[in-house]
Design goal:
globular, single chain, PH-domain like, 5-stranded mixed beta sheet, about 45% helix, 4-stranded antiparallel beta sheet, alpha+beta
Length: about 220
């Protein structure tokens, strides 16, 4: 009989493999969409707001370094088999970095008539219908660590911050505590979301317009 600790370890490993595989598929799908210039939104009246402006230069640095590394390593290695193996890994790594850039470029936040669709790359989608939104505002915040998903307890409930380079700049207050799906599992019941957008004022203005329309329809 398999000990409980061993079963738990294998369960954790299997979950990690599934997450890595899902990330890999999302990367190739994003690269395909970016190459063919597929539109980021399909809903009528929806507007996309990017979230990649601050991370794009960092990714480009890694792309350039990866491109330089391939011929440099090829010159240093004397063995043909080793050069071929390293060249293959180098090209794959370069394509992977371009795919990572495609992931952040092709998955913006979306403000639509049906609600908000908040993204973190290709693997996280936080849908919020307008009937569950109290307010949307802009406020720059710096967070103490580099973790992407951070919780904070406030007198009004639990805040989930989806962080980019240790910052957020848009606050969404929810009407009811809501559970969202993240790669590692469901969140705690959340009463407020804080995200990063490249153009926070424009996104907030668009969101408030839809929120007013949704309130008028409800009345």
């Amino acid at each position: 009989m398999t000990p409980p600790a061993t079963r738990h370890s294998w369960t954790q490993i299997w979950r990690l493999i599934r997450r890595l595989w899902a990330y890999e598929i999302a990367m190739w799908r994003s690269l395909y969409r970016w190459t063919l210039r597929r539109p980021p939104v399909t809903e009528a009246g929806a507007v996309a707001f990017g979230q990649a402006k601050s991370t794009t230069p960092v990714i480009w640095v890694f792309i350039v370094l990866s491109a330089i590394e391939i011929p440099a390593v090829d010159l240093l290695l004397p063995w043909e088999s080793a050069r071929l193996t390293v060249a293959f890994l180098g090209v794959y790594g370069l394509v992977w970095m371009v795919g990572l850039l495609a992931m952040v470029k092709t998955h913006p936040h979306v403000v639509a008539p049906s609600g908000l669709r908040l993204r973190q790359s290709a693997t996280v989608l936080l849908p919020v219908p307008w009937e569950n939104v109290v307010s949307v505002s802009t406020r720059n915040r710096s967070l103490p660590t580099g973790r992407t998903f951070q919780y904070e307890q406030t007198p009004d409930g639990t805040v989930l911050s989806v962080v980019i380079l240790s910052q957020t700049n848009v606050d969404i207050v929810l009407r009811e505590p809501t559970v969202f799906d993240l790669p590692k599992g469901p969140t705690e019941p959340v009463t407020e979301l804080r995200i990063w957008a490249d153009e926070p004022k424009d996104m907030v203005a668009e969101a408030r317009e839809h929120l007013l329309q949704a309130s008028a329809r409800a009345a």
